[in-house]
User: What shape does this take?
Amino acid sequence: MLRKITGALVVAIGLISLHAPAASASPGVEVAAVRTLTYNAGGAAEFKSAVDQGAQIWNSSVVNVRLVSTTSSSANIRIVADDGWPRAQTTSLGNGRVWMGREATGQGYNAIRIAAHELGHILGQPDRKPGPCTSLMSGSSAGVSCTNPYPNAREKSEVEAAFSTAKIGAHADWAHEFVD
Ligand SMILES: [Zn+2]
Assistant: This one.
């Protein structure tokens, strides 16, 4: 609990100090703090565009981590399509695999929300079910009519905190499987 509070304070202070010099034409200051994660959506079939949009949503929502598309087989994140329920498996913070299951889109769930939600798991977010449509991590519990693909303030700040303090791949205890 104390660690979490400390982390949030570090983020708050970090954002202030990063944004001030950036305003005086020093963009390198911000870039230095960003951790880049590559994702390979070559196996995402008809979901490739939804995955790219989900990644862009995270990129526009947080500053401490950036998702970049690659065709490399050594990507941090592999994203594939299958006929099951959407899910994610993390091997460590920022590393893992996403399945864009057709079972959910077949029922009418929004593919971009699914992609952003599953990427949220890779970025260290747990499921928060049941939850409202304003929460990205409430997943399918928000109902099939929910198309919101954006993380809320809490989800954004938690991802910022995770990537301001953790080293990618350093947390083996982050390994987890999320169905939904
Ligand atoms: Zn989930």
Remarks:
- Residues 2-23 form the longest helix (22 residues).
